[in-house]
Structure formats: structure tokens, C-alpha cells
Amino acid sequence: MKIDIIYQKFKECLSISTDTRKISKDCMYFALKGENFDGNKFVPQAFDNGAKYCVVDDEQAVINQHCILVKDVLTTLQSLANYHRNAINIPIISLTGSNGKTTTKELINTVLASTYKVKATIGNLNNHIGVPLTLLSFTKDLDFGIVEMGANHQKEIEFLCGIAQPDYGLITNFGKAHLEGFGSVEGVIKAKSELYDYLKQNEKSVFINSEDAKQIKQIGDYSKTITFGSKVKNDCVINFISANPFVTLKYDNTVINSKLIGNYNYGNIAVAVAIGKYFNVTTINIKKAIESYLPDNNRSEIIKKGSTKIILDAYNANPTSMLAALKNLKQLNAENKYLFLGDMFELGTEAEKEHQEIVNFIESNFESQVYLIGQNFNKTTTKPTTYKFATFEDLKPELKTLQLKDSTVLIKGSRGMALERILDVL
């Protein structure tokens, strides 16, 4: 069936779904396949739960006239998203980067939503399935759509740009993330810069931190670049004031006090400010938006337990973000610092070296109680005063003996480590 005909049926639906457990009435269900599941087998359940149409790629799944048989469900989902993107024709802002994507996306959304009708990627639905789902949730009455793009291999950002066709874009940073797929930091830079390549080829606009030398080098001499940072010649002049612990900055003679910790979050806030300025959001609205934003979902949250302050940053980790969190902790005016650090995943052959480098930094800069959790950290060479645990279960008995009083605690690790469980034990 041609994509324009499928699109007409899509417009009859109230929403879309790829999970029969989350079907809503009159939605369009896409029967995706994975390594351990086949959505075609759940078509009857989808209809029972209220689906109006089911897109399938198995002839045996066609059980009534409301089944749409296609060659490949995933490809159809992606093509439909691109068709819809062109049909509604709203400005799209896309972002990628090694760290801070979701926080930055939420900040941009908060700033623009103070003045415009905006919708953004929900959570981190930022891959070859999430981006199409995001685009299909946009409507033509929006002033802006914000699309987060993630990648763990080359050409993925290029592919996602082909679907979303962004009008504006930014890269949060280049860091040591997904080295297993990218091979090296150079590989990371090349892959993330596919967003710049698309924007430049199509003469679209780029927001860029003028103090990030790697990004300035990648964008080169491109006329449709909107710069931000402390230099007077920037399109948007923003000055970092402090991060002890929350980031404070100055813009347009106005001090903005965020609820985000760590100077590594300055760039994330600054680009949201720059985008707000570019699209004529008033300074007062920018200030209110930034100051109202509260991090959640284990991302740089500060939790107070009596006299103890816990920095919960357990959503994800890579060598760049881990080092940034440690440097931030080091400069905080705090006594009795405790570190609970979990393994960093997807580092491939670099895993041993990167974990050891983190250990070396810790032992050169902290006299704190250091607890390392995971198979990779367990293999590192450490001082006798550094505690190592192969698993979270091994750590639990030790946690129950701790009396954390008047302390500052950092909890950080990759998502698979689920170190937020430490809070339950503490």
C-alpha cells in the first residue's frame, strides 16, 4: 500500500502505538519485530484493546480489512514519519551529543514553551524507532517540534536527519561515549557531526558554543551559525558565574539561578538561553523557564536526607560525564565526600583503560570514601583504602553499616548498573 494512502488512514487515528499493552482507543498499531518478539502475533490483542488499524508485514496477521499489509513495518513507520513531517511543515530543532542531550532538550522545550506551542521528544525516544514516533506525535498547530537524536554507530544521525529534516540543530558536546560502536573519540566526532553535515548541505541554522574548540573546528566557516558564550562578539553573550552546587549564569544583565548542578551543565543551559533569544523569548521568560526547571529521572538530582546531600546522577555514564561529575564534586565546598561509582558500559576494548584512568583521577584528587561497583571497576588497580565490589549485591551489606551524617554523596554509573538502588538501602 502506498504511503499516501496509509497516511490518510493515519489521520483517522488519534495516536500510534508499537506496544499492545499501551494501546489507546482508535490508535494505529505498528507490529514491529525484534530479536525476541514479533508484533504481528499480537494483532488480535491490538484490536481487542481499541486499535483502529494495524500495520503488519506478515500475511497471516491480516485478520480483517483494518489490517494494512506492508513489506516492512519499521520502514513504513519511518517513511510515514517523514511524510507527516513534510505534511505539517513546522520548524524542527534537532539535537545530539555525547552527554546532556535529554537535559538540554528539556531546557529548550521549557524556554520555548514560555512563549510558543511546542512539543518535544518524550523521555529519550531518540533512535530509529523513537524519532519516527516523536515526529508522528507532532501536529501542524505547533510552533516548534524538538527532536532528540541518539546514536551508537556511524551513519545513524545521518539517517535520522533524513527522516526528521531539521531546520535548526545543535550538538551538546563530543565525549567518550559508545566507544564500542564508534571505535574512538574521533569516531564519535565524525558520527555526531553528521547533524552538522545535514544542516550545512541544506543551508539550515546551527547553534554552537563558541568556547567549544572541537565544535568550532567541525562547523568551520559556515554562515548560518548562531554562536553563544562569554565572548562579546557572540550572537548571544552569556557568562558563567558559578556552580556551587547549582549553575548560575548571567544573560542580558540578568542573573539566572538554575537548579542544575555542575559546571558541565552550563553549556546545556546556555544553548537553551541562546535559542530563546534567537526566537524572541523575553529575558524574563527565559529566566523564569530556566529557574523553574527541575532535573528528574536520576539525572543530576540533589536529594537531601537529613544532614546529608546526595547527588544522584545514575541515569547513565561514560568517561567524559564521569570525569565531569568528579571534577564538580571536587570543587564543591563540602566535607565528608562519599563516592559510589558504577561501571561505564559500551566502551569495548577501551573499557579497562578508561576505568583505570577514572580510578587514577579519584585517588589523586579525593581522600573520600570511594566505593566502586561492577566487573570493570573490580579489575582496576586501587589503593587499599578504595573499596571494590563486583556486583551491587556485594555492596549491599556494606551500605547497611554506613552512617552518613553531614556528608555529600555522589552516585553515578551506567543505566545498567541501576545505582539508584543505593538510596533504598541507605
From TrEMBL:
It is found in: Cytoplasm. One of its GO terms (molecular function) is ligase activity. The keyword Cell wall biogenesis/degradation applies. The keyword S-adenosyl-L-methionine does not apply. It is an enzyme of class 6 (ligase). Keywords: ATP-binding, Cell cycle, Cell division, Cell shape, Cell wall biogenesis/degradation, Cytoplasm, Ligase, Nucleotide-binding, Peptidoglycan synthesis. Residues 96-275 form the Mur ligase central domain. ATP binds at residues 97-103. InterPro entries: Mur-like_cat_sf (IPR036565), Mur_ligase_C (IPR004101), Mur_ligase_C_dom_sf (IPR036615), Mur_ligase_cen (IPR013221), Mur_ligase_N (IPR000713), MurCDEF_CellWall_CoF430Synth (IPR051046), MurE/MurF_N (IPR035911), UDP-N-AcMur_synth (IPR005863). SUPFAM superfamilies: MurD-like peptide ligases, catalytic domain, MurD-like peptide ligases, peptide-binding domain, MurE/MurF N-terminal domain. Its EC number is 6.3.2.10. Belongs to the MurCDEF family. MurF subfamily. Involved in cell wall formation. Catalyzes the final step in the synthesis of UDP-N-acetylmuramoyl-pentapeptide, the precursor of murein. This is UDP-N-acetylmuramoyl-tripeptide--D-alanyl-D-alanine ligase. It comes from Winogradskyella litoriviva.
